[in-house]
């Protein structure tokens, strides 16, 4: 059982972050925010896959204006991602955005920051301070200290700006494309502040490489109890970010949503096309919203016993296979009927 770091709880829309709230999964639309139709379609697609919060890029006045219509058409909490122009943040708040992602230090004059923070305070709009290793302040880049310490110092500076304005609806992220730098930055900041932490490895890469980096980085921190909300950053359809995020949480027992799939590696005892079969099982049951484990095993000799922890499973044979439940074989069927029989047995168990 993972003992999680206790943080100050905030609320984004109807999603609680920090405290004893479940760890939430986020993603970001890659649509042009000015295109309301396309953006709303993508938000709906992300929500259907289990995304709790969606972030939108707000690059200009037209994008900020579009927020009003987008908010009206979706129930998913939305975060406006804003850089430099404080007026965009103000318009997004007035148009119903649930949260902001800004760095107070790059908004400009203190009076501009005060306008944004005072309005956010009035509307109970949380602000995420997002520090990125690739865009640190010049004075920090010149310091002879490790990069992760520079990131933490940057975050603490931005946090102080908000605290000096008596604002504490704060969430913090410290992202680097380097996994170890990311881990050390979050470990250090977790000891210094009470606020919720948004985890992510930025610029992690394409699907395969990005999944590995994110799994190592986020998985390490989550296993240590650090992190309240996550985004798996991938150069891929944002839906894949959501699926990956949920899978990372499921692997650590931090989320119960949908099926947990397990399968054995291939070996000389395997007498069925295990790779193809495992993929078919995942594809058939990927949208089944039951908190169960389904195993795909290569042989009947060891399969059912090794996967007795699974709720249901398939063990392959020569042209046939066995369906098992909690390690006990309950049916023997031809190979081409395995998936249908497994589905039948699962359905009977949950009628």
Using the coordinates above, name the CATH class of the largest domain.
Alpha Beta
Distance between the termini: 31 Å
Quote the beta fraction: 15-25%
- Note the overall shape: elongated
Please estimate the helix content: 40-55%
SS summary, helix count: 12
CATH superfamily of the largest domain, by name, is: Dihydropteroate synthase-like
Element-by-element helix/strand order: EEEHEHEHEHEHHEHEHEHEHEHEEEH
Give the number of DSSP strands: 15
What does the model show?
- The protein has helices at 36-48, 61-72, 86-94, 110-123, 138-141, 147-163, 179-192, 207-223, 238-251, 274-285, 303-306, 338-349, and strands at 10-12, 15-17, 24-28, 53-57, 78-81, 99-102, 127-132, 170-175, 196-199, 229-231, 260-263, 293-297, 312-316, 320-325, 328-334.
- It has 351 residues and is an alpha/beta fold.
- It has two domains: 10-251, TIM Barrel, CATH 3.20.20; 260-349, Sulfite Reductase Hemoprotein, domain 1.
- α11 links the parallel β12 and β13 (312-316).
- It is elongated, with a radius of gyration of 23 Å.
- The mean pLDDT is 92.
State the main characteristics.
TIM Barrel; five-stranded mixed β-sheet; single chain; eight-stranded parallel beta barrel; 351 residues; elongated; Sulfite Reductase Hemoprotein, domain 1; 2 domains; alpha/beta
């Amino acid at each position: 059982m993972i003992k999680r770091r206790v943080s100050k709880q905030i609320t984004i829309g109807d999603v609680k972050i920090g405290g004893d709230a479940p760890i939430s999964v986020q993603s970001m639309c890659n649509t042009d925010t000015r295109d309301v139709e396309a953006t709303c379609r993508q938000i709906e697609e992300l929500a259907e896959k289990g995304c709790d919060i969606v972030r939108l890029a707000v690059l200009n006045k037209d994008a900020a204006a579009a927020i009003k219509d987008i908010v009206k058409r979706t129930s998913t909490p939305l975060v406006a991602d804003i850089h430099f122009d404080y007026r965009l943040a103000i318009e997004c708040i007035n148009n119903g955005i649930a949260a902001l992602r800004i760095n107070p230090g790059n908004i400009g004059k203190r009076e501009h920051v005060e306008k944004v923070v005072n309005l956010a305070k009035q509307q109970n709009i949380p602000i995420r301070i997002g520090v990125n290793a690739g865009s640190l302040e010049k004075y920090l880049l010149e310091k002879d200290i490790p990069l992760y310490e520079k990131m933490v110092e940057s975050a603490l500076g931005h946090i102080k700006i908000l605290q000096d304005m008596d604002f504490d609806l704060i969430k913090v992220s410290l992202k680097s494309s380097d996994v170890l730098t990311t881990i050390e930055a979050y470990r250090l900041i977790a000891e210094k502040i009470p606020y919720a932490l948004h985890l992510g490895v930025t610029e992690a890469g394409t699907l395969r490489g990005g999944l590995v980096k994110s799994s190592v980085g986020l998985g390490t921190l989550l296993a240590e109890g650090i992190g309240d909300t996550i985004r798996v950053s991938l150069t891929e359809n944002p839906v894949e970010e959501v699926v990956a995020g949920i899978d990372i949480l499921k692997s650590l027992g931090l989320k119960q949503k949908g099926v947990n799939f397990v399968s054995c590696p291939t070996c000389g005892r395997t007498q069925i096309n295990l790779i193809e079969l495992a993929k078919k099982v995942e594809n058939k049951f990927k949208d089944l919203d039951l908190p169960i484990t389904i195993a795909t095993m290569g042989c009947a000799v060891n399969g059912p016993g090794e996967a007795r922890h699974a709720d249901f499973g398939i063990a392959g044979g020569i042209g046939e296979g066995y369906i098992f439940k909690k390690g006990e074989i309950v049916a023997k069927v031809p190979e081409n009927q395995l998936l249908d029989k497994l589905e039948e047995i699962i359905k009977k168990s949950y009628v």
